[in-house]
């Protein structure tokens, strides 16, 4: 069960944008659907704890992640959310296996280039990218980068997966394949996901529950 009810005003100079989100669902596949600039990414950031709302509450299962009235604001790591950013945010100077291992490290020391941890090997295999383990992100295709980013997120065992336009950097031919990869992972890991998209095909594929986003008004 996810309950989201908050308001947030973003300001830069004289410009301001007010986000008003209100939805509640127990669906496992939630789609935030709407045009560019509607407030989808900011909503996801608030759920992840990367942006603090001005008022309201966010609850996931039995946990309160944010409650303005009661001064509750759980830090992002405590929410145990896996966030797949639009550009995948891979570290360009680290190999595929190091990027994935980074999800596990608790220090700022880079993971070893030579030793592949058993958990990393498992995720390399699961995402079918074992043959890419020693490559740098610059040598990968869009679809391969997405698999690496997914592995780096999922190795942390998140309880909720947040995907910000996951197919934006993947060409049309690969999109259906990547939809299947994400769909199968979601089902086998049995974790709910929230996906941002403005592609009606993604909405129809993943939208067990569709939240409409329009000019800062996020409702469903
Ligand atoms: N710091 C800020 N100050 C003022 N406005 C902001 C700030 N950050 C974001 N915005 C505005 O908030 C609105 C929502 O942004 P958001 O990134 O959530 O949109 P989106 O629906 O995810 O769009 P897209 O699909 O293009 O990624 C935009 O109009 C943006 O200009």
TrEMBL record:
Boundaries of every ABC transporter domain copy: 1-220
Leader peptide range in chain numbering: none
InterPro entries: AAA+_ATPase, ABC_SmlMolc_Importer, ABC_transporter-like_ATP-bd, ABC_transporter-like_CS, P-loop_NTPase
ATP-binding keyword on record: yes
PROSITE patterns: ABC_TRANSPORTER_1, ABC_TRANSPORTER_2
Keyword Cell membrane: yes
A single MF term (Gene Ontology): ATP binding
Keywords: ATP-binding, Cell membrane, Membrane, Nucleotide-binding, Transport
Pfam families: ABC_tran (PF00005)
PANTHER family in UniProt: SPERMIDINE/PUTRESCINE IMPORT ATP-BINDING PROTEIN POTA, SPERMIDINE_PUTRESCINE IMPORT ATP-BINDING PROTEIN POTA
Stated name of the protein: ATP-binding cassette domain-containing protein
Organism field: Leeia speluncae
């Amino acid at each position: 069960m996810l309950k989201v009810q908050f308001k947030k005003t973003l300001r830069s100079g004289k410009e301001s944008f007010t986000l008003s989100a209100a939805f509640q669902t127990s669906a496992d596949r939630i789609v935030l659907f709407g045009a560019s600039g509607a407030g989808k990414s900011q909503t996801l950031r608030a759920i992840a704890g990367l942006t603090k709302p001005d008022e309201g509450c966010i609850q996931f299962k039995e946990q309160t992640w944010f409650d303005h009235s009661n001064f509750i604001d759980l830090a992002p790591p405590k929410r145990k959310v896996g966030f797949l950013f639009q550009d995948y945010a891979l570290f360009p100077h680290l190999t595929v296996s190091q990027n994935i291992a980074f999800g596990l490290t608790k220090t700022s020391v880079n993971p070893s280039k030579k030793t592949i941890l058993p958990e990393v090997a498992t995720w390399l295999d699961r995402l079918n990218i074992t043959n890419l383990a020693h490559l740098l992100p610059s040598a990968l295709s869009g679809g391969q980068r997405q698999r690496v980013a997914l592995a780096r997120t999922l190795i942390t065992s998140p309880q909720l997966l947040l995907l910000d336009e996951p197919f934006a950097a993947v060409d049309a031919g690969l999109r259906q394949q990547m939809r299947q990869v994400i769909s199968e992972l979601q089902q086998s890991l049995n974790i709910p996901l929230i996906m941002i998209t403005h592609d009606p095909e993604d909405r129809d594929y993943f939208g067990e529950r569709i939240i409409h986003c329009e000019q800062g008004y996020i409702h469903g």
